[in-house]
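Most newcomers find our protein records easier to grasp once they have seen one. To make this concrete, we reproduce a full record directly below:

===
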Amino acid sequence: MKRNTKTKTESQSAPKAQSRIQSALKATGSALSARKTNGTKQAAISPDEFNRRVAEKAYQLFERRGYSHGNDWFDWQIAQDIVRLECVPGKNGRGRKTLSDQELKEMTERKAHELFERSLHQKGSDLFNWLIAEEIVRLESSAKN
């Protein structure tokens, strides 16, 4: 006869750990929490779906970088930012203020410099940072409006 070796505290700690993880995930990104849009509530994506999308986006960044190793942490952070922004419901063009070319350039310049700093001043990634910055600025612009 097999004896159950799990103690009561071990079986109780699993749900507590799961709730702590879910709380941390909600705190780290608004993409995981439900949002109100025009009086209707948008369903939240699951943490598993969020992580799947982040992993996919991080790999796409790795590909765009030319399969250059050593940037996995930076790619993962940028992927999280992009996925969070992609999860924000847009207005489908209604009432959205479009950025002028000058505004887009200035905001992209600031974001590219921020990416350069976040990558610990990695040389030779100017074009990559610019393209990613432009993508993020466009997503931020549509999320705010």
Notes: The chain has a mean pLDDT of 76. Strands lie at 35-37, 40-42. DSSP finds five helices and two strands in the chain.
